[in-house]
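pasting for ref
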Amino acid sequence: MLTDPALLRRLIAENEVKILPPNQVIQDFHKYFRNIPIVLRGYVKVLGEDDKNNEILLYYIKPGESCVMSMLGAMNGGASKIKAVTVDETEIIFIRPEKRRLL
């Protein structure tokens, strides 16, 4: 969880911050990760797929949190095995992989 106010200010200053509507897909299955999201306000649900391509709820990302799958994917250049969708209006910092040393 992101709790350091100085780090938060720096992340906001150096990265893109967006306010997204409910049900906005921020990461889709089989797409490459371009950034690491940190939720500032709102919630994001993270979904997986079963062997019949049915979506399965894995977990929620709450304010101050990020997604471990997006961190690994953005740092390693891997394709997504998850789908991430906003639950309600959600404010997110999108950290570019080259800025990951700040985390």
